[in-house]
Amino acid sequence: MTRRTYLDYNATAPLKPAVADAVRQALLIGGNPSSVHHWGRAARQVLEEARRHVAVAVNAKPSQVIFTSGGTEANALALHGVSAARILASAIEHPSIVSERCPVERLPVTADGVLALDGLDRVLNESRSDRPAMIAVMLANNETGVVQPMADVVHLARAAGALVHCDAVQGFGKMAIDFSALGVDTLSLSAHKIGAPSGVGALVVRDGLALNAQQMGGGQELRRRAGTENVAGIAGFGAAAALVGADLGRAPLWAEWRDWLEARITAIAPDVRIFGKGVARLPNTSCFATPNVRGETQVMALDLSGIGVSSGAACSSGKVERSRVLDAMGVSPSESACAIRVSMGWNTKADDIDHFVEAWDALWQRTRLSSRQAQVAA
Ligand code: PLP
């Protein structure tokens, strides 16, 4: 039987068993949390307990947590619910923030994938208006794991009277998050990145921020997000949020394994380029390019060996697209086409990394052999 090793936690984390139990129990309640009877009250209790767990996990108040259908909706609610005069966002934000169709001013990043702070104050102070500007910067990047300088961003934004939105979807469960210490106005979270079901997330909103609901309907979530709540999914989110502390306890191990993996592959193929290696990164993520071996080829060959990783960003259409993140870092299209991302999580074991390195080594040796044979034949 093929041994299976999942190393694509930044795309989604496998469901945790305790979370599956919480979801199942909540599904069996059957009430609408807005109803006043026994079943409604039971559903409401589950919802509010989950809200407490999510709030505690990021050091926020339960009243600051708005449940959404995921990170994408949380980002949209922050960007469009606050009527900012202009929106500035780092060029490496998730497509739910920066896309071709969204009128967002893009801020450059360095070759290491860190938001370039030089000149940010000048850009923020351009075109003053009676409404504040909003700047959106993610806590950590989904492809490279590079952690962004949030404290500096908040400092510069405050000086310019701008609001700050932080997409913390990838940081959650991989680095400590303190909403009140971060000082941002809004912060997005997604349940499926921490071992809960997909289709659930939250926007954490600072007290006093005016936020317009983006959907017409009922007065759920203190009138900030209409629609009957996904009680079972939220119960799972709460259960997973309560386990985030345990994940963070494993983070030093992930960093050790990531460094070992990177040392091994660069010993095998010294021309491998690891993105963001010299700067602060999430402990679980490694993104690297292997010269002349396309990312899709690596993903497919590794899949045949039972290993799940991704090339560039996990694309919802299933197509492989050029990575916008690596583009923004100035990586050439030919090098970016050879990049893959390995990401660990709550159920990763040390021998999963051995499995990866063995399979990757075999792939590399095969590729070298066939390119030598091609040279001889030419
Ligand atoms: N933001 C980031 C940084 C992400 O990586 C993702 C998902 O990959 C999202 C937002 C979207 O979250 P969701 O899948 O819950 O809509």
Describe the strand arrangement of the main beta sheet, using strand numbers: 2-8-7-6-5-3-4
N-to-C span: 39 Å
Q: Number of DSSP helices?
A: 13
Q: How helix-rich are the residues, as a percent range?
A: 25-40%
Structural class by SSE content: alpha/beta
The description of the largest β-sheet is: 7 strands, mixed
Strand content: 5-15%
SSE ordering: EHHEHEEHEHEHEEHHHEEHEHHEH
Multimeric state of these chains?
single chain
Q: Which molecules are bound besides the chains?
A: pyridoxal-5'-phosphate
Rough outline: globular
Mean pLDDT: 94
Poorly predicted runs are none
Radius of gyration: 22 Å
Descriptive keywords:
378 residues, alpha/beta, three-stranded antiparallel beta sheet, 13 helices, 40% helix
How would you characterize the overall build of this protein?
The protein is of the alpha/beta class. The protein contains 13 helices and twelve strands. It has a seven-stranded mixed beta sheet, with helices on both faces. β6, α6 and β7 (186-190) form a beta-alpha-beta unit. α9 (244-268) runs parallel beside α13. The relative contact order is 0.17. The model has no long low-confidence stretch (mean pLDDT 94). Pyridoxal-5'-phosphate (PLP) is lined by residues 70-72, 75, 94, 96, 138, 142, 167, 169-170, 190, 192, 201.
